[in-house]
Amino acid sequence: KMAADTSVEILQKVLENEILQTTKVVEEHLDAEIQKLDQMDEDELECLKQRRLEALKKAQQQKQEWLSKGHGEYREIPSERDFFQEVKESKNVVCHFYRDTTFRCQIMDKHLTVLAKKHVETKFLKLNAEKSPFLCERLRIKVIPTLALVKDGKTQDYVVGFTDLGNTDDFTTETLEWRLGCADIINYSGNLMDPPFQSQKKFGTSFTKLDKKTIRGKKYDSDSDDD
């Protein structure tokens, strides 16, 4: 019992020491930064301020450019011809191939509406699969709903049915956001190795970042009842 107590005490001391060391490093870093600022003359500070303003201005201009190209809202496009035009002018595009009679497409719509507002860097579109037979054939879309993820005009990846989203109709918007983050089609700030599935039990904790080949493969053998 005493030996166990001693090891706990030692461990505690080691941990406390680690925390102190980390705090010390952080404080030293902060001190160095403050000192650097203190030693700056007015010209250097003005230069720093200008650079910051320039960066903000650039970010704002970029956002305006995206908005002018139809980013920031989830839109339906009327035809296949529009699809080619839309993907040509934007670097990142998510296009939902849907069908009016498929209930799961409405679930997808709900999440994409939220994500379109949040991720202005990506264009979010929907296209009626029945009105776009050529595209569906060319992109080999066999399951509805399917999201085609287009980067620099090329279809890089697909989200087919809800297989990658926890295999459930009530997946969260965060889960879809994570999946799009895995494809690098949006700027994802979370941890890709930690999927936010509602029920981890179903997968076990080892289910992490998906292999793209597996995702593509699922397109042909998806168990969705909307084939």
Automatic annotation (TrEMBL):
Pfam families from the UniProt entry: Thioredoxin (PF00085)
GO cellular component: centrosome; cytoplasm; midbody; nucleus
Domain Thioredoxin: 53-181
Entry keyword set: Cytoplasm, Cytoskeleton, Nucleus, Phosphoprotein
Keyword Lipid metabolism among record annotations: no
Protein's cellular compartments: Cytoplasm, Cytoskeleton, Microtubule organizing center, Centrosome; Midbody; Nucleus
PROSITE patterns: THIOREDOXIN_2
Gene3D superfamilies referenced in this protein's UniProt entry, alphabetically: Glutaredoxin
Location, primary (coarse class): cytoplasm
InterPro entries to which the protein is assigned, alphabetical: Thioredoxin-like_sf, Thioredoxin_domain
Assembly, per entry: Forms ternary complexes with the chaperonin TCP1 complex, spanning the cylindrical chaperonin cavity and contacting at least 2 subunits.
The protein's role, per its UniProt record: Significantly diminishes the chaperonin TCP1 complex ATPase activity, thus negatively impacts protein folding, including that of actin or tubulin.
Protein name as annotated: Thioredoxin domain-containing protein 9
Organism the protein comes from: Baryphthengus martii (Rufous motmot)
